[in-house]
Design brief:
single chain; six-stranded antiparallel beta sheet; globular
Length: about 120
C-alpha cells in the first residue's frame, strides 16, 4: 500500500487563556490554516464550547473537513495549551510544515510548539 498522507500531531504551549476560549478566533484559525497549507475545505469550520460535569474548567473543540482530510483543534485554557491534528492525504513538505508552525506561533503568540509526523498507510 502506498503512503496515504501525513498526519501532523501538534502541541501548542503558552497560549493566552482568552485566546483558547475564543470560538470566533478558532473558526478563523481552522479556515486560514487550511488555506495556508493548500487544502480545499468542504464546509465551514465547526467549533463548540466543551464543558464537563466534573470540572469548572472548559475549552473548545473544533474541526474543518477538507477534500484532503481534516484539521481538528482542542483547547485546555486552564493549561494554556492546545492540541491539533492535521491530516492531509498529500505529503507535507518542509515548506508546508514551516508555514504551519509559523502561522500557529503567530496565531497564539506561542513560543513552544511540538510537532510529530505520522506517515499513514
Amino acid at each position: 500500500m502506498n503512503n496515504k498522507g501525513n498526519h501532523l500531531i501538534v502541541d501548542i504551549y503558552n497560549i493566552g487563556e482568552e485566546k483558547l476560549k475564543d470560538i470566533k478566533s478558532a473558526k478563523k484559525l481552522l479556515k486560514d490554516l487550511s488555506e495556508k497549507i493548500g487544502a480545499r475545505s468542504i464546509g465551514k469550520p465547526v467549533v463548540k464550547k466543551i464543558t464537563s460535569i466534573n470540572s469548572l474548567n472548559w475549552g473548545i473543540s473544533g474541526f474543518i473537513l477538507l477534500c484532503e482530510s481534516h484539521i481538528a483543534l482542542h483547547t485546555w485554557p486552564e493549561n494554556n495549551y492546545a492540541a491539533m491534528d492535521i491530516y492531509h492525504c498529500k505529503n507535507f513538505n518542509k515548506d508546508k510544515i514551516n508555514k504551519t508552525v509559523y502561522y500557529l506561533k503567530k496565531y497564539g503568540g506561542s513560543d513552544k510548539i511540538k510537532i510529530k509526523i505520522l506517515i499513514r498507510g
